[in-house]
Description:
This protein is an alpha/beta fold. The chain has helices spanning 3-16, 54-68, 84-96, 114-124, 137-141, 143-153, 162-166, 177-192, 214-219, 226-229, and strands at residues 74-79, 100-105, 131-132, 157-159, 171-174, 209-213, 234-236. Helix 7 (162-166) links the parallel strand 4 (157-159) and strand 5.
Amino acid sequence: xxxxxxxxxxxxxxxxxxxxxxxxxxxxxxxxxxxxxxxxxxxxxxxxxxxxxxxxxxxxxxxxxxxxxxxxxxxxxxxxxxxxxxxxxxxxxxxxxxxxxxxxxxxxxxxxxxxxxxxxxxxxxxxxxxxxxxxxxxxxxxxxxxxxxxxxxxxxxxxxxxxxxxxxxxxxxxxxxxxxxxxxxxxxxxxxxxxxxxxxxxxxxxxxxxxxxxxxxxxxxxxxxxxxxxxxxxxxx
Length: 237
């Protein structure tokens, strides 16, 4: 597979990874543009890619947070207008588990100052409550600084992908982004060889992983219980 295909695949995977609509609803537009797919199996419109059901994954992250941190009664949800579905799903899951939620607005600028964001987070959380991070390019871009400040402030960060856990977040549940890049790069190769994008079904990842950073857990005085440890796919020591 060529380096060009891999590079294009990375762009495709990032651009097209976003939630599917609710069952029965019309296919939602891809992030970053107005184009719409006709269906998952036959996208049409000279368009294909990867769909990730992020609202469902956001709900699962809340449930795993409840299991990992059974004493937590309040969560902070970082949100922007672009990720309303993720925030709503996370809030619904938290309320069903008896937890309160507070929302804090993120600046769309990935290079924003994080000091006021964490100040608001701690205020909204009535202390350093765990934060459910949205699956977003803003978080991905600023992950090292976010995780560094999270540790400094004693805030437990729950993320959407392992790269953010590797940067210092406590836990993530989601797809392997590098796998999505490879799948997208394979599609680029097939398109380069003459396959029409509209003939390639939209990919839907079916394998997900729970990743925990043991160093971060220790720094935050989080004791990982045996029943939760048994569910972890990758424990970063």
